[in-house]
Structure formats: structure tokens, C-alpha cells
């Protein structure tokens, strides 16, 4: 694969002629819409017939998805996934399992067709359908509730054909840190005996003593030992209520990886990758400004529609642009094949287990084709 950055005056036809590739390939790979306008600074993935990389590493690739995912998007993405994490199952204070609001059977069945294995994602969603982090504290302090939850999870896993559980708990209280680690260890012990596996999502820490509710309850070394694998949630530096910035700046992501590999075996670590961006109205006012979540293809379409020039931050290794609509200034940060390539480089540099995408609800085909050109994707037998 090659990456071409659009220059002023470029068209799909002129780029195809210059790079000796087909117009149809450029349009398909980059999800361009008729009449195929381009934005200056837009990164295009170009197919090269003789660029097949040899001796590619085998990695695990996971993608999170809600049960309301478009079936075409799901089926297009599944060939590139080792695992599909269904988001999300919750639980009650007594350990009863709460099912997703929509049936997920079609996701599990579709995954099977492509040799992808489905994973049950467990989050502290309560009976009202809301995230309730108090549930975490109540669960890890109640041995009978843990016993009941594990038994109930085993029933669901067996009935639906999941290969295991992904524990995605955030904002764990510092005083519950060791209890949470013990819960993950017990869950793994009981599931592994029956051939199932357990993974756990980790907030993006850079040191053992990092302060903050998001970090203090996550013991990297302890959880790395307790679980079969971990996901580094290396995204959301730029988020809905933050000032405009890259969602996953590679310099910040690198700091998390550098710490993680001192605590957890590299063969257990998946790098979290965002499949989205944000559009912030300006001026940014802390506590008031709220960004809109957008897809990566949508971001480019916004740039094209508003005549914006896409720039690339070399430190963050992330694309961004500014535009004005109806008298309101905007700043957009998103992911493109350049920013994804930087993340793939990091996976290779540290020999990590693989990648975990939050989330796959929007199709970003160029990302998957670039990933496939760099790695062999493990399919579990």
C-alpha cells in the first residue's frame, strides 16, 4: 500500500494517472462519493500490486460493536477481526446478568461465518440501562454476588457461543483496586477451566502512582497477571468535552505503551485504536463546549463540503482542519491512514499482541486494507 496526500489541483483521474493505478480502486478503497471531490491534504490509500509485505507478524485484532450495527458494515469488517466484542452486558447488585437492549444473535452468527469469535463485553450497566460505577464497588465486595455473576455469565457464554468475557470497568475506586484485580483473577480461573478466556480494559496510565479516579483503581501489573490479555484504552485525549486536540496523539499513546510493557508481558497487550473523530464548535469554553462525534470518512466529507485544507500534526501524527459554517468556526480532529500507520508501527516496535478498535460501527475500509497489508490477522480455530 502507498499513501498519497492530495495536492491543490489534484483529481481522482490525475492521481490515478500519476500513480499508475485505477480510478475505480482509488474510489473504492477510500470510500469516495460521486462526483469524487477531494480535499487538499486528504490522505488516500493507494493499492500497489507489487507491494505485498513478506514475513508479516500474526496479530489479534478485536473490534467493539453495539447490536444496532449496520449488517453490511459488520460483514465488511469481520474478515479483518480475530474477535468481535459485543457491547454490552450489564449486571445487578446480586450478580444477575443484564442483556443488551437489542438481540445480538445475528452478530454472533455473522462472526462465525468469517472465522471471527464473539466476546461478551461486561460493563457496569444497571437495570435502568445506565452506567453505574457504584455497581463495581458493590460487586467486588460481595463474594456471593461474584459467585452468582460468574455462574450466570457461564450460562450466557455457553448458550450464545461466546469465547469469553471482556471486563470493561472504568472509574474504579482506589480502595477497590486489589478487590477488582482479585475479581478478574477469579473470573479467569473459573472460565479458563472450561476453555473460555478473560480480557480486561485498562485506562491509559503512564505510571504506577498516577492520580485520578480513572487510573488509581487499575493495577497494571496485577491485572496483567490476572487476565489472559489486556486492552490499553489509548484514546480520548481529545474527547467530547475537552479542548480540540487529537483523540489518540501518538506521543501520548507511546508513553502509555512504554509504561505498560514494564508491567505486563507484551504478548498480552492489545493497543486501543479509535475509529472516530470529533468536531468542536469554537471558541472552546471549558464546561460548556461539546464536540460532535464523527466518522473518519465523514470528517473528510465535511472538509470537502466546506473547502477546508486538511493539515497533519507531526507530533500527534493526526490530521485536523478548521472550517466555518453558518457563522460558527469549527475544529475537527480525526484518524486517517497516516495516523493509523503510526499506530501499527507502535504495535510492531513493541511486538504487542495486537489491536483493539473502539469501535467498528462506521466503516473505514482503508484502515482495514492497510492493516491487512501490514499484518496477518489471527483467526481462532
Quick rundown:
This protein has 381 residues and is α/β, with parallel strands linked by helices. The protein has helices at residues 12-19, 23-29, 71-77, 105-113, 134-140, 143-160, 177-192, 213-216, 220-226, 250-263, 296-305, 337-349, 365-374; strands at 2-5, 43-46, 57-65, 83-91, 97-98, 117-122, 164-167, 197-202, 229-232, 269-274, 277-281, 292-294, 311-313, 318-325, 328-333, 354-358, 375-377.
Radius of gyration, taken over Cα atoms and rounded to an integer in Å? 21 Å
Biggest sheet strand line-up:
3-4-6-7-8-9-10-16
CATH homology group of the largest domain? Glycosidases
Q: If you average the pLDDT, what whole number results?
A: 97
Order of helices and strands: EHHEEHEEHEHHEHEHHEHEEEHEEEHEHE
The helix content is: 25-40%
Distance between the termini: 29 Å
Shape: globular
Number of domains: 2
User: Strand content of the residues, in percent?
Assistant: 15-25%
CATH class of the largest domain: Alpha Beta
Q: State the secondary-structure class.
A: alpha/beta
What CATH calls the topology of the largest domain is TIM Barrel
Biggest sheet descriptor: 8 strands, parallel, barrel
Given the structure, what is the number of helices? Answer: 13
Report the count of strand segments. 17
Question: What's the architecture of the largest domain, going by CATH?
Answer: Alpha-Beta Barrel
Uncertain residue ranges: none
Amino acid at each position: 500500500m502507498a499513501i498519497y496526500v492530495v495536492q491543490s489541483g489534484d483529481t481522482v483521474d490525475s492521481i490515478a494517472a500519476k500513480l499508475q493505478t485505477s480510478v475505480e480502486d482509488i474510489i473504492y478503497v477510500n470510500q469516495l462519493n460521486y462526483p469524487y471531490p477531494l480535499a487538499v491534504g486528504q490522505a488516500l490509500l493507494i493499492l500497489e500490486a507489487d507491494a505485498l509485505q513478506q514475513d508479516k507478524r500474526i496479530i489479534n485484532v478485536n473490534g467493539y460493536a453495539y447490536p444496532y450495527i449496520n449488517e453490511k458494515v459488520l460483514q465488511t469488517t469481520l474478515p479483518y477481526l480475530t474477535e468481535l466484542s459485543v457491547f454490552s452486558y450489564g449486571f445487578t447488585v446480586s450478580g444477575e446478568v443484564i442483556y443488551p437492549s437489542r438481540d445480538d444473535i445475528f452478530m454472533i452468527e455473522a462472526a462465525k461465518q468469517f472465522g471471527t469469535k464473539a466476546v461478551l463485553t461486561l460493563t457496569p450497566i444497571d437495570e435502568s440501562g445506565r452506567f453505574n460505577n457504584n455497581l463495581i464497588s458493590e460487586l467486588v465486595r460481595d463474594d456471593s454476588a461474584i459467585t452468582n455473576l460468574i455462574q450466570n455469565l457461564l450460562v450466557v457464554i455457553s448458550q450464545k457461543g461466546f469465547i469469553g468475557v471482556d471486563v470493561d470497568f472504568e472509574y474504579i475506586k482506589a480502595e477497590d483496586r486489589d478487590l477488582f484485580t482479585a475479581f478478574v483473577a477469579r473470573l479467569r480461573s473459573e472460565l479458563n477451566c472450561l476453555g473460555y478466556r478473560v480480557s480486561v480494559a485498562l485506562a491509559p496510565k503512564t505510571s504506577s502512582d498516577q492520580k485520578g479516579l480513572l487510573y488509581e483503581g487499575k493495577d497494571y501489573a496485577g491485572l496483567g497477571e490476572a487476565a489472559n490479555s489486556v486492552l490499553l484504552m489509548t484514546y480520548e485525549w481529545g474527547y467530547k468535552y475537552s479542548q480540540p486536540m487529537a483523540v489518540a496523539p501518538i506521543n501520548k499513546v507511546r508513553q502509555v505503551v512504554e509504561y505498560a510493557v514494564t508491567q505486563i508481558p507484551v504478548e498480552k497487550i492489545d493497543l486501543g485504536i479509535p475509529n472516530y473523530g470529533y468536531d468542536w464548535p469554537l471558541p472552546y469554553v471549558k464546561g460548556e463546549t461539546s464536540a460532535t462525534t464523527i466518522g473518519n470518512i465523514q470528517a473528510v466529507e465535511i472538509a470537502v463540503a466546506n473547502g477546508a485544507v486538511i493539515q497533519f500534526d507531526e507530533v500527534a501524527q493526526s490530521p485536523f482542519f478548521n472550517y466555518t459554517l453558518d457563522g460558527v468556526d469549527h475544529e475537527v480532529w480525526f484518524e486517517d491512514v497516516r495516523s493509523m500507520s503510526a499506530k501499527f508501527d507502535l504495535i510492531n516496535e513493541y511486538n504487542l499482541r495486537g489491536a483493539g478498535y473502539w469501535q467498528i460501527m462506521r466503516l473505514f475500509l482503508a484502515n482495514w486494507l492497510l492493516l491487512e497489508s501490514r499484518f496477518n490477522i489471527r483467526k481462532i480455530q
